[in-house]
Amino acid sequence: MRIRNLKKLPKKDLIVFDLDGTLVETKSIMDKQMSRLVKQLLFRKQVAVIGGGKYTLFQSLFLRQLKAPKKLFKNLFLFPTTSTSFYRYKNGWKKIYALELSKKEREKIKKAFKDVFAEAGYVAPKKTYGTVIEDRRTQITFSALGQEVVKVLGKKGVDLKKQWLIENKPMKMKLTRLLGKRLPSMEVRAAGFTSIDVTRRGIDKAYGMKQIKKHLKVPISRMLFVGDAIFPGGNDYAVVRTGVDYFSVSGPEETKKIIRKLIQKIKKEASVVVVSQDA
């Protein structure tokens, strides 16, 4: 259920965040303010992060920017490439599972992208930065401007991605629909500003929430999801099917406001418990 007022939010044991567009600007490193807020939240709650990016991207954008004591990492759980893999901290970050596509499946997906580009009359940007169709082994991801556009251009790269979406959203959704028809055994999702992700059928963020429930032993009713793409066609929308309570945010700045309010709420709840125990 969509949550609009934190005061009415039932008590939660686990906060689940989307990464790109929610905790960080697209393909940008997490800023210091967000790092401090996530650290404060980890003192009080378990936190899981799900995103379409591969694990190395989670490392560079999120983990390396998170200035928190290692003892807090026991409360942090990572689900890269749309939860097709899971990492948790046990004397270092350990991979718990990875649902890799076969070589034949990956080649079929790459060919489908090229065929759909021709069918839709897609015209690629004159200049791209890095790999456009990236093989993440558990997921194949198309990024219209290339995987490295933000790494190379910084904020200008973020602006280029936003502008590309404004100008090309109908084409992006058309490509997504056509890919879905060509790959009926796969899950095809429009993601971020310029990306389309392909995984095996049934692998989406609803699957990720179920994996969290399974591995962390936390019921869906005790989770809260925060994401920027919780709308039909958005890559966070699948979580709605699980019945999880969720906040829809417009970007990292709104996420910060949510985390601050959550921390305030948790502190208030804890003080009430202390007072009642002392009474």
CATH fold-level assignment of the largest domain: Rossmann fold
Number of domains: 2
Structural class: alpha/beta
User: Which outline best applies?
Assistant: globular
SSE arrangement:
Layout: E1 14-18, H1 32-42, E2 46-50, H2 55-61, E3 76-79, H3 80-83, E4 85-89, E5 93-98, H4 103-120, E6 133-135, E7 140-143, H5 149-153, H6 155-182, E8 186-191, E9 195-200, H7 205-216, E10 223-227, E11 245-248, H8 252-278
List its salient traits.
Rossmann fold, 2 domains, 279 residues, 4-stranded antiparallel beta sheet, disordered C terminus, Hypothetical Protein, Haloacid Dehalogenase-like Hydrolase, Chain: A, domain 2
What does this entry look like structurally?
40% of the residues lie in helices and 19% in strands. The chain contains 8 helices and 11 strands. It has helices at 32-42, 55-61, 80-83, 103-120, 149-153, 155-182, 205-216, 252-278; strands at residues 14-18, 46-50, 76-79, 85-89, 93-98, 133-135, 140-143, 186-191, 195-200, 223-227, 245-248. The strands form 2 sheets. Strands 5-4-3-2-1-10-11 form a 7-stranded mixed beta sheet, with helices on both faces. It has a 4-stranded antiparallel beta sheet with strand order 6-7-9-8, with helices on one face. A hairpin with a 4-residue loop joins β6 and β7. The protein is globular, with a radius of gyration of 19 Å.
